Amino acid sequence: MGGARGAGWVAAGLLLGAGACYCIYRLTRGRRRGGHGLGLRPSKSAEDLTDGSYDDVLNAEQLQKLLYLLESTEDPIIIEKALITLGNNAAFSVNQAIIRQLGGIPIVGNKINHSNQSIKEKALNALNNLSVNVENQIKIKVDASFLSLYDSHVAKEILLRVLTLFQNINNCLKIEGHLAVQPTFTEGSLFFLLYGEECAQKIRALVHHDDADVKEKVVTIMLKI
Fold this sequence. Notes:
Helix content is 62%, strand content 2%. By secondary structure, the chain is mainly alpha-helical. It folds into two domains: 56-140, Leucine-rich Repeat Variant, CATH 1.25.10.10; 141-224, no CATH class. Helix 3 packs parallel to helix 6. Residues 4-43 have low confidence and may be disordered.
């Protein structure tokens, strides 16, 4: 009888040992597969954040990864995707502040000078969303060449976006049609360029543009200046 009981304890021990080994196997296998076995979400790389399938609003760490990618890569496809993701996230007020604090505004602004037309467009989209935040407007620095984007020969998509940028800034500065804040016309600032006479002349000239959408946008701006 003692032998049967002993055999029973041995069998139970083997069964428990096998179960423990299986649990450890599943645990380590799950870790090797990126933590799925633990129910943890794997960390997204910067390029993963631009693949179009990531719909969540990015946090500060993810935005920092994206800005580093945008600054370090020369691949036009990655640049464009990163700008689209940044532009989408810049539609949220909390991210408008985070992107500014991370030094992202000049990184995005530099892409306006890119030779690729689509990258210019996506950079302006991102800046337009960022420019809704008044504090961000002070950080936007684009040189005198920026005004060339207001020339009549510039592609319609670019023209509409630089006009929207002007409109966003003008709307933020005014309450009930009057200037609520006196812009700081520091040389080299966006205010210095947009509220200078050269820009005013270019915008007035666009009233005669062939495209109806451009004309409408210009007329709307001029009525509020």
